[in-house]
C-alpha cells in the first residue's frame, strides 16, 4: 500500500508537518484523528513526521499521552487499533513554542529536515491574530524557504480590512502558491461529488442555468448553541462564521462555469468570477433580502435550552441565525434566487444543497386524477449523512380504475453499496493529504476570501446603518418568521 502511494504521488522526500496550536480543540478533534486514519489506510508516506507546537510546557511523552486519550475519545472504538496507534505515535513529536515571543522556533528549526531536501508544512491551528507572528518567526529561523507551505484555518479576519491584514502579514513571507486557506466543507466527499456530477456528466449541464433551474437553497442547520465559546462567537455571528466562508464556497461550486481543467487556478478563477458577480444587497433591499435572528430559550430535541443572551447574561446584537437571498448577475443565473440559511439551535442538524428545476411547461395528465406534478429536485446532503438524490415523478404501479397516478420518487445517485458500508472520512483527511502533496485545488485563494468579505461586509453594514436588531426566535424552531416570509416573497418555500 505504501509503495503504491509513493508511486502514485511520486515523492520520497521527508516531510515534516508542524501543527501550531497542536494542543487545541481542532488539532485534537479533527487533525490528529484525520492523520491517524490517513496513516492506517496507508496514505501517509513513511517519512512523514508530525510535530505539535503550542505554548503548553509538555515533553514528547506528555503530549503523546494527551493525543492518545483524545484520539480514543474522538474516534469510534471499531476504528481504533492499539498496534496502529503505536505505529502512528512514532511519527509524532512536540515542541513548546510561543508565537508572540518567538521562543521555541530555533528548536523547531533543528527538528525539521529542510537541510536534507525535505518539505515542511506548517498548519496554523491557532487564533488568526498569531498567523503573522508565526510567519515572521519561521522566516527568522530559516523555516520559510521554497519548500515550506502554510495552511491557514478560518476565519481569515472578520471583515475585508482585517482579512487583508492577515493576508498581507502571511503574504509578506510566503508567496500565494505556498498558502493554503482551508475550508473543510471543500474536503467533504459529496462536495467533490458535486463536481463529478456537474462535469463528468452531460445530463445536467443543458439545464444548469436560469432556463432549467427555479431556485437553489443552501442550508447549514445546527442544533447546538455556542458551546462555551460565547465570546468567540459573539465577535463573529452566523454571517461571518458560516456564510462568508462555507456557504459562499458551496454556492460557488454550484454556480461556477465549467473550469477548463481541475487545475487549482482554473477552478479558483471560476469561483472568483461567481463571487464577483454576486449582486450587492443594498441598504434599501436589506430587509427584503436578509434576515438576522437570535435564539431565545426553547427546546431542542425535547431538552430545554437557555436563550443566547441568558448564556452570557449580557446584551448582544450578534445574530445566531441568518437567511438571505443572493443573486448572481451573469447570463447563466439571471433571476435565479440562491437562498442561504444557517443558524444555531434549529430543530435538527443538517447541511444540504437543494436545487429545484423548473416544472414541466404543460401537464398531459387529467385534472380529475388530482395530480400535482412536483418539479424535479437535486438534493445534496453533506451532513449528517452524505448522499445525493434526484427526485423525479414516477407512475404508481398498478391498474387503478381512476386513471394514472403519479408519485415523487428519489433516485439515490451518491454511493455504491460498497461506499455505504465504508467508514465516512473526516473532511480534513482529503485536505491534509492534498497539502502534503502540494495540491491546492480544494483550497481558497486570497482574492476569493477578499471578494467574499467585500459582499458580506455590505450586508452587515446595511444592518448597522438601519440599526437592525436580530429578530428573536425560540430555540428549536426554524428561525424568525421573517425567514419564511423571505422565500415566500419570491414564491418559494424552504426545503426543511
Ligand atoms: P483552541 O482550542 O483555543 O486552541 C488554541 C491553540 O493555540 C492551543 O494549542 C494553544 O496552545 C495555542 N496557542 C495559544 N496562544 C499561543 C501562543 N502565543 N503561541 C503558540 N500557541 C498558542 O482553538 P481551536 O478551537 O483549536 O481553534 C484553532 C483555530 O482553528 C482557530 O483559528 C479557530 O477559529 C479555527 N477553527 C476551529 C474549529 C474547531 O472546531 N475548533 C473549527 C474551524 C476553525 P496552549 O493550549 O498550549 O496554550
TrEMBL record:
Span of domain Glucose-6-phosphate dehydrogenase C-terminal: 195-495
Organism of provenance: Iodidimonas gelatinilytica
GO biological process: glucose metabolic process; pentose-phosphate shunt, oxidative branch
Gene behind the chain: zwf
GO molecular function, one term: glucose-6-phosphate dehydrogenase activity
Biological role: Catalyzes the oxidation of glucose 6-phosphate to 6-phosphogluconolactone.
Binding site for substrate: 184, 188, 222, 241, 344
PANTHER family cross-referenced by the UniProt entry: GLUCOSE-6-PHOSPHATE 1-DEHYDROGENASE, GLUCOSE-6-PHOSPHATE 1-DEHYDROGENASE G6PD
EC number of this enzyme: 1.1.1.49
Annotated keywords: Carbohydrate metabolism, Glucose metabolism, NADP, Oxidoreductase
Name of this protein: Glucose-6-phosphate 1-dehydrogenase
Catalysed transformations (reactions): D-glucose 6-phosphate + NADP(+) = 6-phospho-D-glucono-1,5-lactone + NADPH + H(+)
NCBIfam families: zwf
Annotated residues for binding of NADP(+): 55, 154
First-tier enzyme category under EC: oxidoreductase
SUPFAM superfamilies named in the record: Glyceraldehyde-3-phosphate dehydrogenase-like, C-terminal domain, NAD(P)-binding Rossmann-fold domains
Pathway this chain belongs to: Carbohydrate degradation; pentose phosphate pathway; D-ribulose 5-phosphate from D-glucose 6-phosphate (oxidative stage): step 1/3
Family from the record: Belongs to the glucose-6-phosphate dehydrogenase family.
Pfam family, one: G6PD_N
Residues forming coiled coils: none
Residues of the active site: 246
InterPro entries associated with the record: G6P_DH (IPR001282), G6P_DH_AS (IPR019796), G6P_DH_C (IPR022675), G6P_DH_NAD-bd (IPR022674), NAD(P)-bd_dom_sf (IPR036291)
The Glucose-6-phosphate dehydrogenase NAD-binding domain, residue ranges: 18-193
GO cellular component terms listed in the entry, alphabetical order: cytosol
